[in-house]
Write a structure and sequence with these properties.
This is Membrane protein. By secondary structure, the chain is mainly alpha-helical. It is built from eight helices and two strands, in the order αααββααααα. The chain has a two-stranded antiparallel ribbon with strand order 1-2. A hairpin with a 4-residue loop joins β1 and β2.
């Protein structure tokens, strides 16, 4: 293997000490506010209804961003195909802007879907009575989720048009792998690097940090967050176990 560039031991110590210092500050604030909350309770305006209201506004703004970037990508597509190949500088600039706006539209759409699902699971519930059950929730979240499902078709159609690649609106894992393989080498390499960085960050920083966060939360609330711990542990184990497929495939 080719040796990559590494930070010095001094830089590594400084980085770890910085993390430790920031963690201590965060822990102090967390403990301080935890004591205040346990003593006086949360402010009246801090409740689930207000949280969901703010979350819906954020979701709507992000979805508006999806529409904006989608329109911009479509405009760049038509401009890209209307200029001559001789205008190479303008040609490359439009190419990058077209794909950039397409990817921004896709990313903002996926974030909007994630937030809408969060709205649904937090806003809906079932109350069991002696002889019946009552379901409650906001119809707005359901309507918005349906709108997102319809919008997914338009996102996929736009992707098909710009990338000149036929892709299903509800593609399978294999279809998405084939789609990734069809990308040019530069974009493919960027995706590989980003995927590795995401997995590494989740495995080494985010999920271990969530264990600590849930532990402190359990101490403050005097109640173990068992389900949350199980979800984090499942994700942590899943990320590592899935590496077995790579090992078996590459070193077979």
């Amino acid at each position: 293997m080719k040796q990559g560039k590494q930070i010095s031991t001094k830089q590594r110590w400084m980085r770890n000490l910085t993390y430790l210092f920031l963690g201590a500050i965060f822990g102090a604030f967390y403990g301080f506010f935890g004591v205040l909350i346990s003593k006086f309770g949360l402010p009246p305006f801090v409740n689930l209804d207000n949280f969901l209201f703010c979350l819906r506004i954020i979701t709507f703004v992000i979805f508006a961003g999806t529409i904006y970037f989608g329109i911009k990508a479509n405009q760049k597509y038509h401009l890209y195909h209307s200029i001559s190949d001789e205008d190479e500088e303008h040609f490359d600039e439009l190419y990058k802007k077209m794909y950039r706006n397409l990817e921004y539209a896709t990313i903002s759409f996926n974030v909007a879907v994630s937030l809408t699902l969060l709205n649904l699971v937090l806003g809906f519930g079932v109350t069991f009575l002696e002889e019946s059950a009552v379901m409650y929730g906001s119809i707005l979240d359901v309507v918005f989720y349906v709108i997102l499902l319809i919008s997914q078709v338009f996102i996929v159609k736009l992707t098909q048009k710009i990338r000149d690649y036929k892709l299903s609106a509800f593609a399978t894992v294999k279809e998405m792998k084939d789609f990734a393989e069809a990308m040019d080498e530069g974009e493919k390499q960027a995706n590989y690097e980003m995927s590795f960085q995401i997995v590494f960050t989740l495995n080494q920083i985010v999920l271990p940090g969530l264990y600590l966060f849930l532990f402190v939360l359990s101490m403050l609330l005097q109640e173990r967050q068992i389900m949350a711990f199980l979800v984090v542990a499942f994700l942590h184990i899943y990320i590592n176990v899935m590496q077995v497929r790579m090992v078996r495939r590459y070193f077979k």
